[in-house]
Write a structure and sequence with these properties.
Elements (H helix, E strand, L loop, with lengths): L4 H19 L5 E8 L3 E8 L5 E2 L6 E2 L1 E5 L3 E8 L2 E7 L2 E5 L3 E4 L13 H11 L4 H8 L3 H18 L7 E9 L4 E8 L4 E7 L3 H17 L4 E4 L6 H7 L4 E4 L1 H22 L2 H7 L3 H5 L7 H13 L1 H14 L7 H16 L4 H11 L2 H4 L2 H4 L7 H13 L6 H12 L9
Parallel strand pairs: 2-7, 10-13, 13-14
Antiparallel strand pairs: 1-2, 3-4, 5-8, 6-7, 8-9, 10-11, 11-12
Helix pairs in contact: 2-4, 3-4, 4-17, 5-6, 7-11, 7-13, 12-13, 16-17
This protein binds zinc ion (ZN).
The site of zinc ion (ZN) has 8 residues, from loops.
């Protein structure tokens, strides 16, 4: 006898049910019905016979079911383009340890309204895409993505490996166009983000040493790389007295460039309007390395230079300073730096005098460069990533969300394991 159409239909359904049951790794539960509607596929789940359910708090097997709650719904990964929704009436079990508790769901965390598979897929995508973009991709709202990412980060921070840290870099990143700042700490050897703090004050950064690192882990710190403008040096001496403070090369160069810029702006203010016209668009000429300039650019630079002797001095001072990074012998580097500071102090350029004074009072953290040669430049890529995270989200409104997004994209945290 040929199978009837009716028979075939149920047979397909059984196949789908088995497929979904296997996909969800159900052992104490089973799929009883699958129904296709216009916008989604509904999967009904029920308890499998008298199999023992587990407590949602401690995951211990429980003998007694206390009661059956009303039906709940979970979003799962879509099948092709069809959204998948699970429906189930949760049981409350009598746990010998915890009392009456909602059972443990093998497909989702107790609090979640999406399955573990979906929330992990969302978390993976949110590392690359904005939260808005991720939400759109999975047909969720922004808030759900935010919740998923924050939970993933909490899990990741609890479960991440903490090998000894030897070389760290402390830096700041701005949120909302330089109005609010966060402090980030990197492991410069492993090139991974260790910690993010809300604000850039000493008090805001202290928890990194006291909570994240603790006494024991602070002892392994050998080098701490930071900006000499920043307020953390005291903090480092206090909590990691064995570590060498190294003022970051990239920050020093940034301040040097700012000094050149300050000289240029000062001149600009003094120039007549006619002179200004030929001066326009020359800022970058001065910031570029001379050997990278084309002939026409060199010509422009030389006219510029004839007009502005202070700018010439600034420019040569800048070039001369950069030699410091190339010395291999500490005493030569030191000699060069001392000479440079003296000539900067005689330069009659206020910005350079200020810079030189700053160097002079931070020598103990600048001279070790010849021996250590690390800088926050190693994690420049990560700093740019943080900027783009901030940018693509049009500036996070709360520090909490921004911090979660930074951890999520830069700290290489482990994701929750799917059971
Ligand atoms: Zn329990």
């Amino acid at each position: 006898m040929f199978p009837t159409k009716e028979y075939e239909r149920t047979r397909t359904e059984v196949l789908i049910e088995t497929f979904i049951r296997k996909q969800l790794h159900l052992k104490t539960h089973t799929v009883t019905k699958v129904e296709e509607t216009d916008e989604c596929m509904l999967v009904w789940i029920d308890r499998l016979g008298r199999r023992l359910l587990r407590c949602g708090v401690c995951r211990q097997r429980c003998l007694e079911v206390h009661d059956i709650r009303k039906e709940r719904e979970w979003r799962d990964l879509s099948m092709r383009k069809l959204a998948l929704k699970l429906r189930y009436r949760p049981r409350r079990v009598e746990c010998p340890r915890c009392g009456v508790r909602v059972e443990d769901f093998p497909w989702a965390e107790p609090w979640a309204r999406v399955t573990a598979a979906l929330s992990n897929a969302v978390a993976v995508l949110a590392r690359e895409l904005s939260w808005q973009g991720t939400a759109r991709q999975y047909g969720l709202n922004w808030k759900s993505v935010a919740t998923i990412v924050k939970r993933a980060v909490q899990y990741g921070l609890r479960h991440r490996k903490r090998p000894p840290v030897h070389v760290i870099g402390i830096d700041e990143v701005s949120r909302r166009k330089g109005q609010v700042y966060l402090t980030v700490v990197y492991d410069l050897e492993r090139r991974v983000l260790l910690w993010v703090g809300d604000d850039r004050t000493e008090e805001a950064v202290r928890p990194f040493f006291t909570k994240e690192m603790g006494l024991r882990r602070c002892r392994t710190l050998q080098v701490v790389c930071l900006d000499m403008w920043a307020a953390y040096a005291k903090l480092v001496r206090q909590h990691a007295p064995n570590a060498q403070i190294l003022f970051d090369r990239f920050h020093i160069v940034k301040h040097l460039n700012e000094a050149v810029d300050a000289v240029r702006r000062e001149l600009w203010r003094r120039l007549s309007s006619k002179e200004r016209t030929s001066f326009q668009g020359t800022r970058w000429l001065l910031l570029k390395n001379p050997w990278n300039l084309k002939d026409s650019q060199k010509e422009r630079l030389s006219t510029l230079v004839q007009w502005n002797t202070p700018l010439v001095r600034a420019w040569y001072l800048k070039e001369a300073f950069q030699l410091f990074w190339t010395y291999k012998q500490p005493w030569r580097a030191q000699q060069h730096l001392y000479k440079w500071i003296r000539s900067a102090m005689r330069s009659k350029l206020d910005a350079f005098k200020k810079f030189a004074q700053m160097l002079r009072s931070h020598l103990a953290g600048i001279l070790p460069w010849t021996k250590i040669r690390v800088s926050n430049g190693a994690v420049e890529g990560m700093n740019n990533k943080i900027k783009s995270i901030n940018h693509r989200s049009f500036g996070f409104r709360t520090a909490e969300n921004f911090i979660a997004a930074i951890y999520h994209s830069c700290a290489r945290l482990p994701l929750p394991v799917e059971r």
